[in-house]
Write a structure and sequence with these properties.
The chain is an alpha/beta fold. It has two domains: 218 residues, P-loop containing nucleotide triphosphate hydrolases (Rossmann fold); 67 residues, 2-Layer Sandwich (Alpha-Beta Plaits). Strands 6-7-8-3-9-10 form a six-stranded mixed β-sheet, sandwiched between helices. It has a four-stranded antiparallel β-sheet with strand order 2-1-4-5. Strands 12-13-11-14 form a four-stranded antiparallel β-sheet. Strand 7, helix 6 and strand 8 form a beta-alpha-beta unit. The radius of gyration is 24 Å and the shape is elongated. This is ABC-2 type transport system ATP-binding protein.
Length: 311
């Protein structure tokens, strides 16, 4: 059974805007799913619907087998949410803020649990510090601590590292990995492609209220990625010889490097034929290197493809 199971989810706002258009999505227990999409794609609306903040117009959502509308309390009890906005009481102390969140779910006081959460997030030394005295990165850690206070089994992170520096972002990636090791299911929305590439098990792409795909990260990159072969020549060229034009080569600005792109999923890369043709043309090769398309390149291509198809 999926930990989160979404079927035919629609959300239409009062002004007629359809933010979600029949979304189907199953999220496995203990996995990290990165949900990528441009602004306005429906990422936050989707999270809000699962967390009970937005009421769906149609479709069903189950969390741990509990329907989010019919069995709201049981479903909500399983979910923790770290929102985009840092909305904390500025004069309250860190530890009291986290205790309060636990109490909201009717759980008994557990100082050992609160301490463990604060230590995991490097907040224990700041436990008596007022929120207003914390840095932006520390405030985001407090948001995560609040979301974990009631021991949820599903954690939604909505742009959790927006506005924090690179070092702190990587620290938070390590925290997410530790949560996964504890069996927590994590759904991450992000604008940082490298974030998804670094920590996700599966990648979901959403655009204009529809899920374009959900796939294992490695297989997605292998299926849709392309490799680029860079051929450094011993002598620069003024132009690509006509005999090589059918290979689809491009010439670097300095004339000393030929660039050849090929599909990793194809049975024939065309590299052997290309190298033979280079030799036949009398071109001496100084060095050869390859590079794989990044997840960012794949993502941009998918979204553009869908937008062109809708035009």
């Amino acid at each position: 059974m999926a930990m989160v199971d979404i079927t035919g989810l629609r959300k239409v706002y009062d002004d007629g805007f359809e933010a979600l258009k029949g979304v189907d999505l199953s999220i496995h227990e203990g996995e990290i799913l990165a949900l990528l999409g441009p602004n306005g794609a429906g990422k936050t609306t989707l999270i809000s619907a699962v967390c009970g903040i937005a009421v769906p117009t149609g479709g069903t959502i189950e969390v741990g087998g509990h329907d989010v509308l019919r069995d709201y309390r049981a479903a909500r009890r399983l979910v923790g949410l770290v929102p985009q906005e840092v909305n904390l009481e500025p004069f309250e102390k860190v530890i009291r803020t986290v205790r309060f969140s636990r109490g909201l779910f009717g759980l008994p006081a557990d100082e050992a649990k609160i301490e463990a959460i604060l230590r995991k997030l490097s907040l224990w030394d700041k436990r008596d510090t007022p929120i207003r005295a914390l840095s932006g990165g520390m405030k985001r850690r407090v948001l995560i601590a609040k979301a974990l206070a009631h021991e949820p089994r599903v954690l939604f992170l909505d742009e959790p590292t927006a506005g924090v520096d690179v070092e702190l972002r990587r620290d938070m990636w390590e925290t997410v990995a530790e949560l996964k090791a504890d069996g927590v299911t994590i759904i991450l929305t992000t604008h940082y492609i490298e974030e998804a590439e670094a920590i996700a098990d599966r990648i979901g792409v959403i655009s204009a209220g529809r899920i374009l795909l959900v796939e294992d990260k490695a297989s997605l990159m292998a299926r849709l990625g392309r490799k680029t072969l860079r051929i450094d020549l011993a002598q620069p060229l003024a132009a690509i010889p006509g005999a090589l034009s059918h290979h689809g080569l491009t010439l670097a600005d300095d004339g000393a490097t030929l660039v050849y792109s090929y599909d990793t999923g194809s049975t024939r890369s065309g590299i052997a034929r290309l190298m033979a043709d280079l030799t036949a043309e009398g071109l001496a090769v100084r060095d050869v290197s390859t590079a794989q398309d990044s997840l960012e390149t794949i993502f941009v291509g998918l979204v553009n493809e869908r937008q062109e198809g809708a035009a």
